[in-house]
Amino acid sequence: MPNPSQTQRSMPRITTILIFVLALFILFDPSLRNGLGQIVSYGLEPIIGFGGQYPVVTLFLAGIIMTGLTIIIRHFMVDYVEQVKSQKIVAAFNKEFRQARIENNTYKMKKLTEQQPKILQKSMEVSTSQLKLLPITMIIVVPIFAWLSVFMININSAHFAVPWSFNADMNAVYVLPSWILLYSLISVPFGQVLARILRYFSFKKRLKQMKADAK
Length: 215
Fold this sequence. Notes:
elongated; two-stranded antiparallel sheet; mainly alpha
């Protein structure tokens, strides 16, 4: 008979897998993707579409919206201090276990093996917290990408200048469509900077709280 706690831990994984498969169906099925993109266009196109005249600006703003929302949601739903603490504990345990194995210290290995279930639980908690966020971020990412795929195909002039070309086609495919590569070039650095800023203030706030509690 399955352990209720194990069943509860497996539920986020099952939900995440189902949502991920659904997202793949939407993104790779042209009819589903275009249908969702058309629905989302009623909300986004009047705001950041600019009638298809400034596709790079549209990509930039879409990247800020999507990345900003996912980073902010992740920030408020994940306890970064506890996450970092758990990662440090797991890393320290793995280092001690490797050292004991190298030294062939059977007594130390036995003691560490007894503690291993607790360490694995901490590692599971970190991965589970990440899995819980994936369905929420998919709800943001998939509709915006669906709209961008429809938007980029329908614009009149889908060209932009890059260091290696003054007339690069956004719909040209180099493993991925060029517009996705340009979108990543815009959104990834922005996401990294925003995440670091939010974490900085989060850790700063926690340190102030710890100092106040210590008084």
